[in-house]
Design brief:
about 230 residues; mainly beta; seven-stranded mixed beta sheet; 22 strands; rod-shaped; immunoglobulin domain; Ig-like_dom_sf
Amino acid sequence: ISAVIALDVETEPEVHGMVERSLTLACRFSDASEHSFRRLLNWYMRREGDPKIEHVLSMIDSEDPTVYGTYAGRAEMLGEQGDMQITSLELVDEGVYTCEVDYYVAHEKGSGNTEVIISKIVDQITIFGHGEGRDGEQVVKYFPPGEPQTLICRASRAKPVALLKWYKDDEELTETEETYEESTDGTFNTINTLQFTSHKSDDGAVLKCETNQEPEIELKKSATMII
């Protein structure tokens, strides 16, 4: 029985993806010393804190790959090596992916790991307190001049945590307090409370609460109110 020779399999250490989009996991390796067309390629996935290993995809020789479980219809091979694309990403796709290559005739075998981190943009951002100003909607509200008001901004189901900032036109308002809640699906809700006193000169100004999920997500969402 021939001894198994270690095969060098190159993968990226870390790849970032976003919910509902796609990503590609690279898996590169050299040909075997002989019978290179005889190989078994597998992709596996393991989530943090879960000892269970999930089989994602397998391909023997040049046959069509077999895709398993929740990856059926979403995972496919790309190119002639071991690259795999996953579409319609979900939060549960986050974990460590292993590409394993086995030249079963030449007895050469190796594997490489890639950590996949999935981000999710805020579902919705809303201002409570004087009715509601939702994402993409402008609401006109009366603020009695000189009377202190409490406004609450909430951003729901974000990953990573969405930091919230308040603005009056282009001026950042800093009398705020922010708290976070973690949901069971690994996303976060952010609640930011603003203490605000308007003046007659604020008539027509725009109050805005805006999200920040950088560097993972550059797109910002905001909710506004016209004073």
